[in-house]
Write a structure and sequence with these properties.
Layout lengths: L2 H13 L6 E4 L6 E12 L2 E12 L2 E13 L2 E5 L2
Antiparallel strand pairs: 1-2, 2-3, 3-4, 4-5
């Protein structure tokens, strides 16, 4: 995931409601991301979200469930759950 894809990721975590999905074409040809944020929570004073992220490329699909917290305007970082 490059800076442009991370920007889409962060923007989506900011705006989407729980259970909504968004998909975008990655900056690399043939790359597709699908993000589905889940519930919000707070950790160490930061707004955080659980999410499922799926990446498709070259006929292969990888799905990851994880969490991320906001550390500034549009700056979301993955954390250990």
């Amino acid at each position: 995931m490059d800076d442009d894809d991370r920007a889409c990721f962060g923007h989506s975590l900011e705006l989407l409601e729980d259970g909504q999905r968004v998909a975008w074409n990655g900056t690399k040809p043939g790359m597709l991301y699908t993000l589905a944020p889940d519930r919000r929570f707070e950790r160490d004073g930061h707004v955080c979200r659980h999410f499922t992220l799926q990446r498709e490329s070259g006929g292969r699909s990888v799905k990851k469930q994880a969490s991320a917290c906001r550390y500034g305007e549009g700056d979301w970082r993955m954390i250990e759950s």
